[in-house]
Amino acid sequence: MKPILQEVERVIETASIALIVLLLPWSWAFRLLRFCTRFSFMRSPCADAASAEAKKMGLGAQFLQVRLISLHRLVDMADYFLTLKYGRGWMRRNVWVSGDELPASTALAAPLFITFHYGQGFWALRYFRDRGYPVAWLHAPPPLRAPWGEKFNSWMGRRRIAQVARLCGAPAIAVGGSIERMRERLLKAQRAVMAMPDAPLQPGQSSIDVRLLGQPARLPAGAIRMAVQAGVPVVIYSIVVDPITGRRNLRLEGPIQAVTAEALAQRLADHLGSAIVADPSAWHVWPWAGSFFATEHGEAGR
Question: Tens digits of per-residue pLDDT, 116-127?
Answer without folding.
Answer: 999 999 999 999
